[in-house]
Amino acid sequence: MIKLTNQFPGRVSMFENGSFIGNGMTNPLGNSMSFTDAHGAFAGHDTENVFGGVNHFDSNGQFDGFTRPNVFGGVDRYNANGQFSGHTVDTAFGVNHYDNQGGLEASYIGDFEANDNLTDSILNFMNN
User: Fold this and answer.
1) Region 84-110 average pLDDT
2) Architecture of the domain whose range is 2-127
3) pTM of the full predicted structure?
4) Which member of 5, 69, 111, 127 has the greatest number of CB atoms within 10 A?
């Protein structure tokens, strides 16, 4: 089970199966989000891209992939080489994340929107 808390504006703490796994913090300009792991070490960052989606970068600053909006109201995910690697769609209860073959990888229940860049950044961090 994954739990997100947001006690401070622009920040999110992430827990998986009751264990703390990291933080996400937006920058003052609001166009990117930085992540730290459970030990406080920098774990990567995401920035908005020209497609209306998000570019993902790993902890070393290397490009790790990107997303862009899809026709289902969610986002399509691509790896660093531009190959399709999955997509997300809204459900009545939250968001479903599918792999590149259409297999369900994860369901997130709660107040999520599949096409929201903040949600996309958080789900990408938690899936890596």
Assistant:
1) 87
2) Beta Barrel (2.40)
3) 0.77
4) 69
pLDDT at 19: 87
For residue 63, list its beta bridge partners.
Answer: 57
Domain ranges of the chain: 2-127
7 within 8 A of 13, measured Cβ to Cβ = yes
Q: What is the 3-state secondary structure (H, E, C) of the chain?
A: CEEEECCCCCEEEEEECCEEEEEEEECCCCCEEEEEECCCCEEEEEEECCCCCEEEECCCCCEEEEEEECCCCCEEEEECCCCEEEEEEECCCEEEEEECCCCEEEEEECCCCCCCHHHHHHHHHHHC
